[in-house]
Amino acid sequence: MKTIFTYKDLIIWQRSMELVVEVYRLTTNFPKSEMYGLTSQMRRCAVSIPSNIAEGRRRSSRKEYRYFMTIAYGSGAELETQIEIVKRLPIGESLNFNLVDALLDEIMRMSNKTLSTLRN
Question: Are the CB atoms for 73 and 111 separated by under 8 Å?
Fold first, then answer.
């Protein structure tokens, strides 16, 4: 097992960074009319996930880490909902969500496990 020295060593942070890139790629295909709507909202949610993981990991206590992981988990749920909205709209008909869905699912499972560990 690899020793964790910094938040950058966390697999969940690494996958979250991949997710940010994929959300940016996906949303570049949205119509310009969504620039200040779903595009902006989805990008902010995606960025929030690794940002809160990093901030929580750098905090001085387990309680603070748990708090920021909870925020990251909430941002993931928000992003899941926004993806579902896009899938139901005409703009989502020609988009490929496979990689974003897979990464987000993995991140949400890891977040849930991390939060469970931090509660104990």
Answer: yes
